[in-house]
Amino acid sequence: MEQQNSFFKILNVVKTVLIWIVFAIAACMMVFTLVSVNMFDQNERSVFGYKFFVVQSDSMAATDFGIGDIIISKEVPLKDLKEGDIITFISQSSYNYGETVTHKIRKVTTDDAGEIAFVTYGTTTNADDEALATMVLGQYTGKIEGLGTFFMFLKTTPGYIVCILIPFLILIISQGINCIRLFRRYKQEQMSEMQEEREKLAQEREESQKMMAELLALKAQLEKKEESLAATEEPKPVAEQPAEAPAAAQEPQAQTQETASAPSEAEEKTPEQE
């Protein structure tokens, strides 16, 4: 039983960790998407002088970076650029006019207005670009391989669904399930507490009834004992002579005296008569 409880505890910990990992990934994806949308491929925006661009062609794949990489360019004065440097600029060529291009400088020159300009080319084809590079955005300083592909996928509807929407839905559903489980556990605990309270009350009622029965039995015993004590202490009745017996004895005696006195009176009267 203890091993089973420990297993469930470990399972709950692992599940919680996985949920928070999914949440962290989804949050990171959202932050990355917001940052990338506002920072990547934005010519006018930079972070401490650095700009970020997603490579969408393989014109420099032979030597430096390819499709799907993110390149980092730093704003520098045009006079510091030289032959062999890689620069990011806005193309003036007819086939990609207005697009952001990152190519290598073949030669430093000037345009018709006498401003510094650059002859650029892609290392894959080794062919010069049609127009001079005059609108320079920065000098190439490094790359992040493959991150651009992921960024481009995030910008699509499937990418948003897979990387942002689904993880958040998983988190919401898991939290909803946890809330339901907690509610059910709370109700079960509440019901168990009520059941325990009922059982406790029933037990107390049984104990009180048992105590009452014991008290009644004790009372009956005490009453029976008192009756037995009263019966043993009651005095025995004394035999009395009837009160009429002396009176009856005196009446014959009186009659005897009267009869005795009657002859005497007769004797006294006899001489007188003579």
Can you describe this structure?
With 274 residues, the protein is of the alpha+beta class. Among the domains are: 2-36 and 160-176; 42-155, Umud Fragment, subunit A (Ribbon). It is 56% helix and 16% strand. A seven-stranded antiparallel sheet has the order 1-2-7-3-4-5-6, covered by helices on one side. Helix 1 packs antiparallel against helix 3 (157-233). The protein is rod-shaped, with a radius of gyration of 64 Å. Residues 265-274 have low confidence and may be disordered.
User: Mind telling me the C-alpha Rg?
Assistant: 64 Å
CATH topology of one domain: Umud Fragment, subunit A
- What's the helix count? 4
Ends apart, CA distance between termini: 148 Å
Helicity range: 55-70%
Overall geometric form: rod-shaped
Calculate the mean pLDDT score and round it. 80
- One letter per element, helices H and strands E, the order comes to HEEEEEEEHHH
Instruction: Please name the CATH architecture of one domain.
Output: Ribbon
Describe the largest sheet: 7 strands, antiparallel
Structural class label = alpha+beta
CATH top level of one domain is: Mainly Beta
Strand order in space, largest sheet: 1-2-7-3-4-5-6
- The number of E-state strands comes to 7
The named CATH superfamily of one domain = Umud Fragment, subunit A
Strand content: 15-25%
Uncertain segments of ≥5 residues (pLDDT<50)?
265-274
Oligomer: single chain
